[in-house]
Amino acid sequence: LEQTQIISEDDRLAEVHADGTVYTTNPSVYDTWCRLNLNNFPFDSQECEVQIGSWVYTAAETQITTNQTEIKLTGGGGIYEGNSEWEVKKIRAEIRQSVDDGEAFQEVWYFVTLHRRASYYVFVLLVPTFIVTTLCIIGLFTPLDNFGNRAER
Question: Rounded to 5 degrees, what are φ and ψ at 9?
Fold first, then answer.
């Protein structure tokens, strides 16, 4: 996982409410990877999991929440910009708790469902391979000349 800060730590703000609740944000860009199952390549779909949580503060000290369980991808207010190879079908978020050494920690899990756009692979790999294979098979059974017996090749 690689993180790129959008706003430096000195410029971030926190909201402190009268009931003691503190809201802070960490606007960042995260790069992560997902193990792919390529059994149905190039007509495959993948589901990737991304877990974000605190390893320092327990569930008693922090509360992680999400305001959406399904993230809007298209239409008005959509946040997804698009990709030429993958189509994001849906992003789902869940709040989970894990226990480590008797302490409970909260995490938000994002499940991203991706579907590969296969048209590139069909036109660049499958169609040319089919054409070359067909030409090779036709060439194998085509006689050298139009008259007489087939000569040995």
Answer: -60, -30
